[in-house]
Amino acid sequence: ETGVTQTPRHLVMGMTNKKSLKCEQHLGHNAMYWYKQSAKKPLELMFVYNFKEQTENNSVPSRFSPECPNSSHLFLHLHTLQPEDSALYLCASSPAVGGTGPYNEQFFGPGTRLTVL
Amino acid sequence: DQQVKQNSPSLSVQEGRISILNCDYTNSMFDYFLWYKKYPAEGPTFLISISSIKDKNEDGRFTVFLNKSAKHLSLHIVPSQPGDSAVYFCAASAYSGGGADGLTFGKGTHLIIQP
Prior knowledge:
The structure holds 2 protein chains of 2 kinds. Chain A is mainly beta. Chain A is built from no helices and 11 strands.
């Protein structure tokens, strides 16, 4: 496997379900991100992890719970979601050795298309 | 309030001609700008970037221009090819004192290259 992979690619869940999205990067990067893309909206940053530590939570509701056990893996645990949470969830990684610039060039996975019924 | 704006949802250009995609931003703290390309059912892929200390960066058929005083950047593709048909996202980041920075994205422009 190369690059950034995400599983599952598609997920349909009820509002009372608990599910998890998985992301894995094979690029040796140190930072990982979750983004949400809703219809007709820009990609919205949700969470940032740098060296396994969460450095940003962009006012995301607590029904979304991220987990980063190591620099290569990132999870997004979902519980009691709402239909308006239906969206494309994208994971990304970047070298993030510090600061901005080329170290912030982020590589994206293909996304998980989530539908909440 | 959107900090990165792409005001053209779509753009149609004839094959072989120049494609110009525009992006405006409002946050003066942004110091690094990126363009991403996205095909259906795939994640965005990095295309080209520019630091705020430059006003132009070129990579093959792709050139990005930055006008800091106008808070405007543009992506030029010349000559345009059918494979360039995709959604193009403008993104920006601001230095936060070290570590990883999330990107702020525009809504995207759907570029259609016509034969």
